[in-house]
Amino acid sequence: MLVMSRRQGETILIGDEIEISITHIGRSRVKVGIRAPRQLQVIAREMKLVREENLAAAAGSDAPALSGLIARLNPRTANPPRR
Amino acid sequence: METKNFGKISFEPESELEFPQGLPGFESRKRFVAVRFVESDPLLYLQSLEDPGLCFITMPILVADPQYRLKVAGEDLQQLGLPSSRQPKIGQDVMALTVVSLHESGPTANLLAPVLVNLRNRKAVQAVVQEPGYSHQHAILAEETETPQALAQEAPTCS
Question: Which of A17, A43, B118, B156 lies 20 to 30 Å (CA to CA) from residue B2?
């Protein structure tokens, strides 16, 4: 990974169309300004992970895996009373 | 309300959860209810009120990790209508749920981004926490090795 040192207010260019500015440096966080073509999605990496995980969570339903999970979490329901 | 997985469910209007921003990947889905069944306790199913087929399996985050420490960004606290001057307390200010994924390698919980519900106004947000080290795929039960003899029967599924 290329690592560059920048001061507050300074900018990095990626190609001709992407501009990254360090707009504020706080104690533990920096604010970064990003100028990029509209068709490029700009998103925090964690958000991408969360989005993918949500899509996987909503898509998948594996009844035996789910039952197994419940049995492990709550042994009381492992042998449900007959109704 | 007719749902894909549970048939007809009824709920009190005041138990509706409002996600002003939706959830990542499902930004247009803003209204959910948390459904609980005796036979699948402690799981909670987060059922969309706008899409009968959309449902997440969740559980209280303290079940997945009893030591979980909540550290929420100011923007997310604002979304919830909570003061950003202090961190919310689980069970007092907010309900904190973790979304469960059933991967082939085993069930995982998303500790990176818990679903937080303001207990006073039912506003909800899936917030990426400001605490390094929490995984979006935290293995549940990985530390246990024994396989239960009997599996729970008739657990409602959710896809």
Answer: B118
Phi, psi of B102 (to 5 degrees): -100, 85
The residue type found at B119 is L
| Cα–Cα distances in angstroms (integers) from residue B10 to residues B1, B15, B40, B117, in the given order | 6, 11, 18, 20
**Residue showing tokens 């390094």:** B132
User: Per the CB < 8 Å rule, is B155 touching A66?
Assistant: yes
Evaluate whether A48 touches A34 at the Cβ level (below 8 Å): no
Q: Which of B92, B84, B83 is nearest to B117 (CA)?
A: B92
User: How many CA atoms, within 13 angstroms, populate the side-chain half-sphere of residue B78?
Assistant: 4
Q: Count CA atoms within 13 Å of residue B84 on its CB side.
A: 7
Does this model's pTM top 0.80? My answer is yes
pLDDT digits (tens, 9 = 90+) for B16-32: 999 999 999 999 999 99
Mark which residues 4-43 of B lie under 8 Å from A by CB: 5, 23-26, 38-43
> CA A28 to CA A44: how far, in whole Å?
17
Contacts of A79 in chain B (CB under 8 A): 150
For residue B20, the one-letter residue type is P
Q: What is the pLDDT of residues A64-75, one digit of tens each?
A: 778 888 888 876
Type of residue numbered B145: T
Residue A34's Cβ-side half-sphere holds a number of Cα atoms within 13 Å equal to 12
